Amino acid sequence: MRILLTGGAGFIGTHVSAALVDAGHDVVVLDNLHPSAHRSPAPTGDVVVADLRDPAAVRRALAGIDAVVHQAALVGMGLDLSDLPEYVGCNDLATAVLLAAMAQARIGRLVLASSMVVYGEGAYTCGRHGPVQPGRRQVPDLVAGQFEPPCPQCGEALAPATVDEDAPLRPRSVYAATKVAQEHLAAAWAYQSGGSVVALRYHNVYGPGMPRDTPYSGVAAIFRSALAAGRAPRVFEDGRQRRDFVHVSDVATANLAALDATGSASGEPFRAYNVASGTPTTIAAVAELLALTCAGPPPQVTGEHRAGDVRHVVASPARAAAELGFQARITPQAGIADFATAPLRG
Description:
With 346 residues, the chain is an alpha/beta fold. It contains ten helices and 16 strands. The strands form four sheets. It has a seven-stranded parallel beta sheet, with helices on both faces. A four-stranded mixed beta sheet has the order 7-6-8-16, with no helix packed on it. Strands 10-12-14 form a three-stranded mixed beta sheet. The radius of gyration is 20 Å and the shape is globular.
């Protein structure tokens, strides 16, 4: 197939592009080379440099295309709420322009890069009340070092559980809100156009080519940058936050599986999948493994916190395994140890 890959010059996009080409697809990469992801000059020889918010450019890029793999997005926590218009423009307006052009061109297959941030505080169980959804963590509690969310009914400590794709969407940051909006726009497009969407909810993606330390970087890259400068990785809260770290090569494989699934006989125009390793890891454990492998200073647990951060988000990968045939091959232990010496993007 001839595939339009948006954001294909970025961290995840370059790995997805390589996987698509290796699978025999003809790939057209469109990227606006946003400075948050491309602080140093990026090669543009095989990249259509254009902004998805430009309808004419998008229509030109879609000529002769069979399917779209939409990776382009401004990611991460950003600096503050002054980033809000840029996030909405890059993520939601750009997606709306793309979907409108796809409808006009009668292109009906879309793979959408979404994120685990759509779940907010993940899933929890209370010993007395069973599955519950905690409220937003309060700043006074965080300042006092009380990081675990309590049961909203009895106030007792909760146990984190795995979150599946049917969990309610409760975004806790601007970025998360834009990813939920992308999903809703894509679902509306699918129902109205007769198209098909597979949304991949990436968990914590890491691997070669991650951007170096920026406000938009993932935590693994931030730790790597600190160690490269001879500094101890700074671990927020108490470091016991649980996440699922999934290697970028597995994410690329998931995109291939999703592309095969679009237009299938599943009967649902929009279907979401967790893309995760299935092995929970604490933030402190990631920092410790990187520091050990790099022979750097041990992590410093600071107790700091950030607005919009959630405590635990651990995925169930069961649906992706059952319906896409996708299972991550690289364990966090092996992948993070390898990432300690992997090249980063400048």
